[in-house]
Amino acid sequence: MKGTYLGEFEEVVLLAVAIRSGDAYGAAIVNEIEQQMNRSVNLGAVHSALSRLQEKGLVSSEMGGMTAERGGRRKRLYSVTAYGRRALEEIRQLRNQMWDAIPNPALT
Amino acid sequence: MKPRNVGPPRFATYLLHLFCPPHRAEEMEGDLDELFQERIRGVGLREARWRYVRDVVSLLRPSLIKRENTNTYPTPAFTTMIRNYLKIAFRNLAKNRVYSFINIGGLAAGMAVAMLIGLWIYDELSYDRYFQNYDRIAKVMQKGTFNGEVFNGEYNPAPMGPELRTVYGSDFTHVIMSSGDGNNDHILAYGEKKFTKTGSYLSAGAPDMLALNMLSGTRNGLKHQNSILLSESVAKALFGETDPLGKLMKIDNKLDVKVTGVYEDFPYNTEFRDLKFIAPWDLYVASESWVKQAQDNVEWGNFSWQVLVQIAPNADFDAVSAKIKNIRLKHNPEVAFIKPEVYLLPMSKWHLYSGWDKSGNLEGRIQYVWLFGIIGVFVLLLACINFMNLSTARSEKRAKEVGIRKAVGSVRSQLIAQFFSESLLVVAFAFVLAILFVLLILPVFNDVADKQIGILWTNPVFWLCGIGFSLLTGLIAGSYPALYLSSFQAVKVLKGTFRVGRFASIPRQVLVVVQFTVSVTLIIGTIIVFRQIQHAKDRPVGYDRSGLITVAMNTPELHQHYNALRDALIQTGGVVDMSTSSAPATNLNSQNSGFSWEGKDPNFKESFGTIAVSHDFGKTVGWQFVQGRDLSRKFASDSSGMVLNETAVRYMGLKDPVGKQIKWNDSQFRVVGVIKDMIMESPFKPVTQTVYMLNYGWANVINIKLNPARSTSESLAKIEGVFRKFNPGSPFDYRFTDQQYALKFAAEERIGKLASGFAILAILISCLGLFGLASFVAEQRTKEIGVRKVLGASVTNVWVLLSKDFVVLVVIAFGISSFIAYYFLNGWLQKYQYHTDLSWWIFAVAGLGALVVTLLTVSYQSIKAALVNPVKSLRSE
């Protein structure tokens, strides 16, 4: 397996998949990120991040769910794997640990 | 005006499809579309389109473009499909037996012909290559111009050899004098065994030059004057299993020689295949006084011998030829008027490039190599055309198969592979069949072509050519169905809306025209060749060949008892008359100048054929007198008598020839009679002006007229008894004059036989093809014919309808071939001075013949189609 290190954008995409759980596919994730972070992202960046995440085993995917607005095309639905969930939690813990380590005066 | 595009930019979508692997394209395009729709609502069309493009570009990153294993179908092994193709191919062949037979048989016949011709050409081109010094051996040739006619001769004066050896020694490794070209009959005797064999007297260096493969003894065997080298076959015949080395034997019952070596027989395709023994040149000089005289007196005017040379390793033919060019001019300057020239003819040119017409242009066998090469290519072409025609015609019936295969999932490359493998299979069958044909025909072919050819089983070039050609044919013939049929759209084909274009049959029609052009040309050619042979055969020969035999006078005994021998022969009752002459009636072997007569223009450089005869020659051969009388013993003055032929009288311009005096060198002759021209040379040439003079001393053959009232075999047995008594040292060998005469047509008859064989094959192959095409057309038009019959068409109408198309094609072909045939055959006939005409009826017969054959072929199918009950042909709809 490639290194389990998660890049910043990868982390964001993984979180978006978790948010949109059950309906996480390319366009939805783009929308989600744009809304949450208020910045525009390229579809290509998202797709490439998703495929990297899948290679690392953090997400899994299946084809399904065609809608009229997609011209009847199927979408690839992503869901976070158990391993992916643990990775997210680890990151969060790590951040929390670091936050806790900050001496109070420094923030003020 | 184009409506404004409100969708995403098309080029971007196109770009995406161009680069993206198909399995990703669907989801990506879906995502793109969805985002695009949302963005139209959110940020407007312009911005949405712009971002669409940006997204597409961002999607085209290597990690996403990378193609994974995209085939979602199982991948069968390559051989699985091949097996399926072969199965279908076999089923197709078995289902359409007639087509398969025509296809494979026709192609095999064409290939067999091409193979035979190829083998023949190979044999011709490899002629003489047996000799190790092939590229250094040459013949010394004489060239000159006499009365405006260029002549090339391979006979040289006796001093030529010594001259080359002494003056130009550094240019030659070997200079070999030869008594002849190996066709001279000699009697070889050992004890009681006697055989007539052909052989030559050669200088001592000959075994080295010819690189004889010595089976026993050494190549030095000719150094001693009384020695002989025998070929293996002769040694076997004379000595059986005993070792011939050192044995004493006799040549021509007069020369005692010791066997000093045995060499391997020369192969059949060499110049020296008849050289069955080699005796030393010195022995020849010592035993023949006229040769000794010519050599000792340095006679530069007697051209009776061949000179073979091997040039030195550093010399080349052109340079040496240039050096020796003026030898003859140097030694007898008085012949400067014929512009004599001496040159070397390399061994590589002996077989194919020697033979010149009267203006000195090359007219060798190489022409036949070209001719047959072209015929071979054409016959092969015919067969290929057939093959292609039938393949294409058949393939249209298989459009449905293509449709089904495509519907089931075949991709185009698979269909191409299928059709190619099918045509290659058929070609492979044909190739094997062709080899079988060749094996069957080869004995007959060798007989007709005077060859000893075998299939070159071990020659890689043969296999390379054969297989290479088969592949090529298969690919060309298979290319139409493979490339054209595989492009059909499955939907159209299966729906039935598919129609081959109006012009789909044009290439086929062109091919039929080409085929028939070749066939008709060959037919016309064959007729003309046979007409020409018949024309020459019908020519009056001026004497009576029936029951005439000749016996060579090859031992001294025969020359001594002319009258006793003649009396003894006539007494047997089997012989009407006997005479001697300097040449048999079928061979004018001596021409001379030095004649003068009353009223001759002193500047006229004359030349006469000269024949010495005995008193009884005229009666033996049956001379037909136009004026005067035969030579007779009743007139003592006839000892200087002379008989002219009609051409000679015209040539000399004599008004009243009988009784005229003619002087030849120092002898005076008196003309006693004029005979009708006797054809002694080629029957295709005009007769040479010839004089027949009485001379018992100059005799080479005995002519015997058999008694027509007795059976030939009985007479021959009696004659043999007489010869045994008079000529005990020699076997009784005789030749029938009519057979010798027939040999003069051998070359032409050979061409005729081969040409007719090829013409028959060509027509056969063309008809096979036509038959196939006709049946195809009839089948295709079954419904049309049914409808026509329902509407009242008669059988004749339908027959005309179906046959018309083919007849038109054949008529066009006939027109083209007439031009071609006229052009080439006119040229061929012009080569013969005595030739038949190119009459119009020959063309008419050939054209009519082709038409009849076409109609017969096509009618079988068209009548069959016309007779079908329309109920049956229309039933299915």
Automatic annotation (TrEMBL), chain A:
Pfam families reported for this sequence: PadR
Superkingdom of this protein's organism: Bacteria
Domain Transcription regulator PadR N-terminal: 15-90
PANTHER family in the record: PADR-FAMILY TRANSCRIPTIONAL REGULATOR (PTHR33169), TRANSCRIPTIONAL REGULATOR RV3488 (PTHR33169:SF14)
Name of this chain's protein: PadR family transcriptional regulator
Annotated organism of origin: Spirosoma profusum
